[in-house]
Design a protein that fits this description.
- By secondary structure, the protein is of the alpha+beta class.
- The protein has one domain (about 5-365): 2-Layer Sandwich (Creatine Kinase, Chain A, domain 2), CATH 3.30.590.
- It is about 45% helix and about 15% strand.
- The chain contains 13 helices and ten strands.
- Strands 1, 2, 3, 4, 5, 6, 9 and 10 form an eight-stranded antiparallel β-sheet that branches. A two-stranded antiparallel ribbon has the order 7-8.
- A hairpin with a 4-residue loop joins strand 9 and strand 10 (about 245-255).
- Helix 2 runs antiparallel to helix 8 (about 260-275), helix 5 runs parallel beside helix 9 (about 285-295) and helix 8 (about 260-275) packs across helix 11.
Amino acid sequence: MLIGTEHEYSINDENFNPLAINDIIIKEISGKVQNEFSIEKITISKELQKHVLEFKPTHPSESLISLEKELHSGFLRFLALLDHKYKFLGTGMHPLLKLDETSYWEHGEEGDIYREYDRLFNIKQHGFLNIQALQVNIQYKNPEDMILLYNKIRSLLPFLIAITAASPFVDGKTTGFMDNRLIYYKENQKRIPIICNNVISEKLRTKEDYMNILKRIYAELEKENANILCREWIPSMGVIIRFSRNCLEIKALDEQECIHSDMAVTAFLLSLLKSKELSLDDEENILLELSEKAIRYGTQKLKPELEELYKIAWKNSNKEEMGYLPLIKRRIEEGSIAEMFVHQARKEDISEILKAFEKSLENNKPYETPEVINEPCKVSKK
């Protein structure tokens, strides 16, 4: 199964103030303002937010280890080309950003698209200007495989949200939620609610079911004279179908603190998708309720379910995936990045934590707190 991942990192000065300069950086390295350019085996792209750049493998791979090596090597080369003069951060939102500190990409056709977004939805909100996602793209073989994978991923979304929660701060303050990115993301296109559908998409029986969702979205956009947005990427549910790439794109996940952690999340997902014994609720109201728990508490209120999922993942993992899964075990026991972030912020200045996150990204080493922050649960590997 071919996998491709997309990673979004904020650009910062030495004090972790966000810098809205992705076009300047792209021009500095590639020689011109353009949507993307390549270094080694990775592609670096602009994002809607001018303080964010996206990093992805130029080609998908069947190996998570290969993806990790390519991405980290390319990222290090990118830092060297910039002479390490900026600091880069993962996590689901920039924890300190004020909306007037950034803006959106205004160049070329993409600029036209973003201006249309702004007209319809008002881009000047955290749900557009301050979100950073880990996107996982999974290839499907045929329409039947597509529907099977789609429905499985849909039912797993609450648990993936819990594991990846990494956005507990907004404007430098905690809000009581572990995944603020999704709170804003769910509301950023409320003028046309079907585009996001509260992150949980409708269960599919056939390819035509999904085509009908697209038609309904396009019809709403056409009513608003926003035909430029009638593209297959416009849906922003937790999982969407990209027919042009024969893949499913998972959009509900907060960016983690380093590439290795992103690969661990991906390994957890891939192991679960191979399981024949996976039996999950698929009723929309139940999935919404579970998602709300994940958004508010991270892993804390879903530990028994996550423990069972871990056992299933371990049982169905291959040798490569087994190497990543112990990190997921730690996240279940000790909490998501958001939970660790909030805990540690009670004891030290947030700037010190951001320094640790920045080093974690550069060195590709998962962030750890000195102590366990949640009541440990016994998660068996067998």
